[in-house]
Amino acid sequence: MGAPKFCLGYPSRTAAVLAMRAEGLSTSTIAARIGIESNTVTALEASANRQGRTQRREVELPPWNTVAIDNDVLRALRPHAIRRQVTVTALARQLLATLADDDLVDALLDDADEIAGRAAA
């Protein structure tokens, strides 16, 4: 077995997998973010479980991986998270990742500016 591979701000791929799983992400999503096969994600989790590390353990995120979200926004997201059977935090992360990955930030903000302009008129 080789040395741990630094991954997405975590000290190893296993730590990254466990952190993303704790956020409620699926195996395929985790695999895509790390750039590994889904069966590798499963194998890393199984190895961690054999070594006594569990997915339920709190995983400390790197400080640059932290975003503060207003409580009103979190409350507004809650029913959507419940419908998708994920945590509000996992949903917020998924929304931000989709906006960034699909290059939708400008489109969303431009639409919001247009709607606000019509409302002010």
Description:
The protein has 121 residues and is mainly α. It has 2 domains: 1-66, Orthogonal Bundle (Arc Repressor Mutant, subunit A); 67-121, no CATH class. It contains 6 helices and no strands. It has helices at residues 13-22, 27-34, 38-50, 71-84, 88-101, 105-120. Helix 1 (13-22) crosses helix 3 and helix 4 packs across helix 5 (88-101). It starts with 12 loop residues before the first helix and ends with a helix.
Can you tag this structure with a few keywords?
mainly alpha; Arc Repressor Mutant, subunit A; elongated; 2 domains; 121 residues; 6 helices
CATH topology of the largest domain: Arc Repressor Mutant, subunit A
The overall pLDDT average reads 81
Q: Name the poorly predicted regions.
A: none
> In the CATH hierarchy, what is the class of the largest domain?
Mainly Alpha
What overall form do the CA principal axes indicate?
elongated
Q: For the CA atoms, what is the radius of gyration?
A: 18 Å
| CATH architecture descriptor of the largest domain | Orthogonal Bundle
The number of domains:
2
Quote the beta fraction. under 5%
The total count of strands amounts to 0
Distance between the termini: 65 Å
Q: Helix share of residues? A: 55-70%
User: Biggest β-sheet, characterized?
Assistant: none
Give the H and E element order.
HHHHHH
Subunit organisation of the chains? single chain
By secondary-structure content and strand pairing, the structural class works out as mainly alpha
